[in-house]
Design goal:
- The protein is α/β, with parallel strands linked by helices.
- It has two domains: 5-126, 3-Layer(aba) Sandwich (Rossmann fold); 135-229, Winged helix-like DNA-binding domain superfamily/Winged helix DNA-binding domain (Arc Repressor Mutant, subunit A, Orthogonal Bundle), CATH 1.10.10.
- The chain has helices at 13-25, 36-40, 62-72, 87-95, 108-126, 160-171, 179-187, 197-209, and strands at residues 5-9, 30-33, 48-53, 78-82, 100-103, 135-137, 140-143, 148-151, 154-157, 176-177, 219-222, 226-229.
- The longest helix is centred in the middle third of the chain and has 19 residues, at 108-126.
- It is globular.
- The N and C termini lie far apart (52 Å).
């Protein structure tokens, strides 16, 4: 039987060796592969706590690997670890579905702290006994710790980023949140970053939770200012 493990997708063997050593020192079991194809063949990922993914792989783009991982398992945590450190590279990684993005060279202490946080969250929402209060609005129930929701359109699994955005909205119910605030709070991006990621996420939340996504009642656009979440049904 496969043990709970971290999947490391890294083709540079000297880097992989150091990561494996330090992760095992922290008590993790590590499965190491060097190509995107090998990573995708690890399915199902029921015992995978986290995927650490390089972007520059010998057989395919790490972004394509990330997209396929995300489409096959919406709750699988993915940490991109790459030498591509430009802002647009980070945005592309997050848009592909990664939960976090760390550039080489990196601090080993920071790397291990990020891994620990993501593994802990993975264990929380993959546990069948996870116990968390639900947040109710309209005909929707959201279980943030379990990363799942019961919506007007059926049951869905939520990604780490979707949970982060929902939590920010729930904690600021009724308050107009600027694009800059949401980009910084959810993605950690600079306020002046030009990206459609936020808008795409709002469209996705409306598709999940609004009875009629084209006429939202909960996730409202405040023209020229940002977005506002309303628990009670509200006309836009």
């Amino acid at each position: 039987m496969i043990r709970p493990h971290i999947l490391l997708v890294e083709d540079e063997l000297h880097i992989a060796g150091g990561l494996i050593f330090n992760l095992e020192q922290e008590g993790y079991s590590v499965v190491h592969v060097t190509t995107g194809e090998q990573a995708l063949k690890q399915a199902p990922w029921s015992e995978c706590l986290l995927v650490i993914l390089d972007l520059m792989l010998p057989d395919m783009s790490g972004l394509d690997v990330c997209r396929q991982l995300r489409s096959r398992d919406p709750r699988l945590p993915v940490l991109i670890l790459t030498a591509l450190g430009k802002e647009q590279d980070r945005i592309a990684g997050l848009e592909a579905g990664a939960d976090d993005y760390l550039t080489k060279p990196f601090s080993l202490t920071e790397f291990l702290l990020r891994v620990r946080g993501m593994v802990n969250r993975s264990r929380w929402y993959r546990s069948p006994k996870a116990d968390d209060e639900c947040f109710r609005f309209g005909d929707n129930l959201v279980f943030l710790k379990e990363h799942r929701a019961r919506t007007v359109h059926g049951d869905i699994d939520l990604t780490d980023l979707e949970v982060r955005m929902l939590q920010v909205f729930f904690e600021n119910e009724g308050t107009v949140l600027s694009r800059e605030k949401l980009l910084e709070s959810v993605w950690g991006l600079a306020p002046d970053t030009e990206t459609r990621t936020l808008d795409n996420f709002i469209v996705r939340l409306r598709k999940y939770f609004e009875p009629t996504p084209a006429r939202p009642r909960h996730f409202l656009t405040v023209r020229g200012k940002g977005y506002r979440f309303c628990r009670e049904t509200t006309k836009s």
